[in-house]
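Z., the sequence and structure:
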Amino acid sequence: MENAPLSAVGHLVEAVAEMRSATDDFDKITQLEELQTLLNATVGAIARVSVDFEVSQREDQRRRQVPSRERGRGIADQIALARRISPAQASRDLGFARAMQRDLAGTGELLSSGLITERAAQAVHRETDHLEPSLRREVDRELASALPDLGVRAAANAARRAALAVDPEGAAKRARKAAGDRAVWFKAEPDGMCKIVAFLPAPEGTAAFGALKKDAATEQATGAIDGRTRPQVMADMFVERLTGRAVREGTPVEVQLVMGADQLFGDTPQSPSTSPTPETSDPDGPAWLDGYGPIPAALARAIVAGHPGLFGPSPAEADRAQAWLRRVFTDPVTGQVTAVDPRRRRFDGTLRRFIRIRDQVCRTPFCDAPIDDTDHVHSYAEGGPTEVDNGAGVCRRFNLVKEMPGWTVRVVHGDPAGDGGVDPPPGHGHTIKITTPTGKTYRSTAPPVPGAVIAAPHTSGSVVELILAERLDLRWSA
């Protein structure tokens, strides 16, 4: 495949990659116009090819005698691997592609011609998704002439007005359905922060937010905010009312720390062997908080200490902390997770915990979903062993997809050709090979611990265990 001639698209990609900015600013703007048109048209082409691929794959599944209720499974997953996006995003994009081909053909043609952006086409898709196909096509015909001159918000408003006009009862039905879809989501954000998003009916949401604003204003008026801003007071009230605990009391957690001893204690432990050999992890580098992701070492120490100021505790305060801590040991040469301390008040599956911490998120390439299942790479039903090397953390979706005809998943680390049969070298990253029904192959290697600094091979991982055992021994429960 490496020596295969470039396709027409390949030549286009090569030309765009080598393109340089024009000398004259007028020509630079012209380049931007043309590139945006190309980008729009590319999205339209992706939609067309995706739909055609879905049709042919469904026919292939029919020939393979896949039960009708399961046909279609795994198609978006193959598209996701090819486009280097998550399966969830590929599913959404495939739904959009179907609409552009079948119900919103006019909008799809404008997109494929480069006359409207993907965001504008998505807005029309989103605002008309609840309509019957015939009504959706009617809205599409009405909007076609106006869309090229509209921005994203204007396109959404125009589509919403047209949808209301062709189906006046639709708004009430959608409102009733939306109330049944109320939910709460969690999303990790940079700098050790997160978002908790609530999807609520407007009256309840307005009342909840209004209550926070009103009570925060009362505290501000009485001088009880202690230097905090009103948004900070509202955020603190939000947490207190959900958990029943004051923010300043700290939150009880079990921190599955993936961090070196020097990160936790703020010093550099010395090897107990001959000459002192310092650990090589970065004391200020990122740690890993299970369920969230990378966090600053200072924040990890603060969580352990239950310190109300988050970044306030010194290493000595963290050392005296009474929060539950579970040790996670890493290989100092490769940065890979090598062991998880089983000691805590409850023993609830150290093997599962190990794989979850090692893999961090679903092992499907480009899938950012949280781990739902600790899966046997070589199926348990076919004799696959229940051990670390044969385990992989995956989302529920991929656990079902990989059982479809034509899919294979195998452990291949230590085997350069990917053909199996070679034992992995010690400390090598856990690698699996995924083959799709079309014969395309993809590899997934467990990531190194965030912030790990690769050490010289002679550094012993036992240093971390010895230092932690010395400092924390009195606080472990068997």
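The CA atoms of residues 123 and 156 lie 5 Å apart. The chain has four domains: 22-180, 190-249, 254-351+453-475, 361-445.

Let me know what you think.
H.
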